[in-house]
Each structure stands twice: as C-alpha cells, then as structure tokens.
Task: structure prediction
Amino acid sequence: MTSAEAAPWYFKKAARIMDVGERIETLLATPLRSVTVQVSIELDNGEIRTFKGYRVQHDNARGPMKGGLRFHPTVNHDEVLALSSLMTWKTAVVNLPYGGAKGGIECDPAELSVKELERLTRKFVDQIHDMIGPTRDIPGPDVNTNPQVMAWIMDQYSRYHGHSPAVVTGKPIDLYGSRGREAATARGLQFIAREILRDVGQQVPGTRFAIQGFGNVGSHAARLFHEDGGKIVAVSDVHGGVTNPKGLDVPGLFEHVKKTGSVRGFGGGTACSSQDVLVTDCDVLVPSAMGSAIDKHLAAEVRARIVLEGANAPCTPEADEIFEQRGVLVVPDVLANAGGVTVSYFEWVQNMQHVTWDEERVNGELQRVMKEAYEKVGQISRSRKLPLRTSAYVLAIGRVGKATVLRGI
Amino acid sequence: MSIPAQLLKKLVQIPIFQGLTVPEAAEFFEVALEQTIESGHTLFREGDEGDALYVILKGEVSITKKGIELATLSTHAVVGEMSLVSPGDTRSATATAKNDVDVLKIPSRRVQKLIKGDHLAALKVVANLAQVMAQRLGAINDRLVGDGKKKGEARKEELADFAGILNRWSF
Result:
C-alpha cells in the first residue's frame, strides 16, 4: 500500500467500526471536485514546457477547503486525491472550520530557475483562480513549496479578484504571513508529546527522542524537545544520520547543519543511516521525513514506546497493525502534525480580520487546539478501546458527518 | 326482515359490520331486503344513482368499469358501500351477477334515517366504513406516488440511520 492510499484505508476501517452504511461511506469518500489543468510556460531558454497541475477539493461540509500545494515529479491525481481526503479528516480532528483539499504540479523544481518557478506558479493560478478563494479553497505550502510561492499565488489571485491575502496561507511574515507558522507543525508535536508522556506517567525532561527528517518539521521538533529538557538521541536527513545515546548537543548540531547543510558528519555522535534512526533505542520516535518510511519489517524492530507521526503517513497500515499488536502507542498524522494547518487557519483568521497576532498568542491558541483534540481522541480511545488513529478518524467522521447531515444532501 | 342468528354471526365478521353485537346487527338488518339476482343481470350500472349497499350471501358478482373487470366478489363481500355515506352519488362501476346471486340489499335512505336517530349500530357501521375508506385512500396514494416515494423513504432512512450512528458515537 502506498502512503497515499493510507488515509482512505484508515477512513474505511473507522467507518466500518462505526457501522456507517455503504452509500454514506461513498458519499464521504468521494471528492467534491477534482480538476487536472495544463500548465504551460516558456523556459528561460525559450523552450516551451507543459506540466500537469491538479487540485482536488474533497469535502466542504465543515467550511472552505484547505490543503497544501506540492511541486514534485511524482505528483499524480490519485495521490492528490488521497491527500485531499487526509486534509478533510485532519481539519476535523483539530476542529477547524474547514474542509479538505490538496493540489500539486508534476514537475521537478530543482530543474527550474526561480523565474521559471514563478511563471509556473502564476500560470497554475491562472488555471484554477475561479475555484479557489478565501471562502472556497485556501492553498498552503507543502512539499517543495515555500512562502515565496505562496506570495506569488496571493499576488496572481489578487490580480483577478482584488486584494486577497486570505486566499493562501504560509505567506512570508512581511506579506500577511503569521508569526509562528514556520515552527507550527513541530510545536504541535511538542504539545502532543507533553500530553501523551504525562498520560503514560513520564515527563519530557530526560525522555529520549529519535527524529527522522531534519527539514521544517524535524529540525524545529529537535529544538523544541531539547528546550523542554528532552534528550535527542538520533537524527537523520536524506544524506545520513547521527546518534548519541547520551543525547546530542542540539545547539552544536544546528551550527553544523548551518555550515554543511546536513546533519551528516556531526562530530557529537556516531554516524548512522536514516533507517538506523528508526530502530534506535529511544522512548519517542518522530518520523518526519517521507511517507511509508516504516513498513511492517521495520515496525517489528522499532524500540520506541511512542511513535509521533510528524510526516503524513510515515507508517504503512501494515506497520500500524504491528504497532497495535506490540502495544506501541502511535499518535497519528491527522492529530500529531495538525499544528501546521492549525496555524495556517490562524493566518487566515488574521487576514480575514485585518489584524496581526503576536507569536505568544499564536502558540497559546495552538496549544489550546492541540490539547483539546488530543483529549477528545484519547477519550474515544479509552471508552471504545480503540487505537488513537482509529479514534481520531471516528472523531473526524463524526464531525464531518454531523455537518453533512445538518446541511442535508 | 328478521335474519337468522347464524347468519348474523357471520355478518358481524365483515369489516364494515365489525363491532356490532348480534342484537345490534339484528336491529340494523331490520331494514334489509333479501333479493335474488339472476345470472347476467346487474345489481346496478356505472352512472346509476347509488341508493343501496349489497351484502352477497351466495354467488359471485363481477365489478366492471368501461367493460374492464376490476374484481370478482363472492359470499359475504359488500358491494356499493359508498352509497351509505354519499347517497345520491352515482355508481362508479357496474356490478353484474356472474351466476344466480342472493344478496341482502340495504337501502341507504333507511340507514340515513337510523343515523339521524343516533342509532348506535348504524353509527358503528359508518365509523367502520370511514376506516375502510381511509385505508383504501392510503393505498391509492401509495400507488399514485409509486416507486418514487419508496426511494425517497429509503434515502431519508439512510441519512437518519447515519445521524443515529453519529449520536451513538458522539463525545
């Protein structure tokens, strides 16, 4: 099963446990609208290149649809569709007034110049501007898209519809972006880690964390767990990893990454592979790199007691099952990494109200949202004797379902 | 005419005479006349003034409208009961004896007289008749709306079922 197929699979599993009828299941699973568009641009050398762009709007029962926009060579319709459904459930788990969407352009941004990327982004907006909007569908950053790309989207959309900062989130702070957005996903993980460790009778100080992936999520998570007194015993990125059972020197590690661009070769520990990080001896494993990083074979070897899904679908459903049998607590992506979309929501709220929040307020509101979602999911898990993931989907189906029933078909 | 107790016991089992005690039935059927209609003759024709209801005691009666047979009625069936509550209205179908038929004819004018005098048995009969007609009206409505209604109901139930599931799973 690919990582993209995971969300629809978990949805089905929870829907069957709830005894949702087949036709209602289809109603909830089928996307509202799905478009494929041609995105043709002139490259810097005068060559014409045509790319395929996708936007899938999955469900709008709970509000305007929200979801990232990714630029990647493997982007395809099925993947975007599955990820759009993941957004429907994720926004529902953290109780944001949003539905789910996702988009992408099948391209390799590493091969494109900045000017070409800008033309590509603007052309894509030309093709979908009439289906997105602050009260319809609000894109955000995702794989290989950054605040600059979001700024181009805002500008291009505003050319058609007038000044509209709320059409997209993840914008630069200097252009209607929100404070705290960059570290938001990691901060969400931090709040969840505090809660779940307390529930198992532990505390963050002294707890050993292993983090796979040192990008936006992994690096901020390492910093925040370290700030809370946690021990970072292993980290990795695409180039390799480093481990130290006594805890890595985190400020030193950041210095190293700043200089070399990678965690590889950091002197404060033993060099290891990215896979080694996953099976290293630790209390909390935070896979925050790619989907499907942990398959059933690795799941059997994972030594952590708790798995915090920083990435989307880092564990395959087969691995998830093995964790369940082994009694490893898995905090699912729809809950664990929902901090990102939550602060995106705060950015949208600030834009809609023409106000700016300070970072303290952003983080405070985020903590409230994450805590509330964690408590609800935990409540369902305890009372129904279900794993956290199934409980999160039950909560999401309940919320989306109620909105659907109240609105009517 | 006076009717043998054995027949009265059978008559009170007919839906529109249900609930009548045998003495009440005896009183009610005082106004009835026994008739024999020969095979092929009509009890009444479509368009005639409806002046009586008939209880078939023996034989078979064919109900036709514009030449098309709608039903065949036999012993202890009731024919022309609408005339009891709307005397003077025209018959909506033709009733023909398929063989020699014995009937009890109850003239509606006499029943109307009983009702005006608050005659308990007559009032019971009219109440029964109202019930029978309400059931028929419901059946006609169902048939009129046809399959569309069935589908509509199924969809409503499906959404309602789902709402029920969500209530059971709400936190």
Q: What stands out?
A: The beta strands of chain B are 33-37, 42-44, 52-58, 61-65, 68-73, 78-79, 94-97, 101-107. The longest strand of chain B covers residues 52-58. Chain B touches chain A through eleven residues (CB under 8 Å). Residues 43 and 135 of chain B are 25 Å apart (CA to CA).
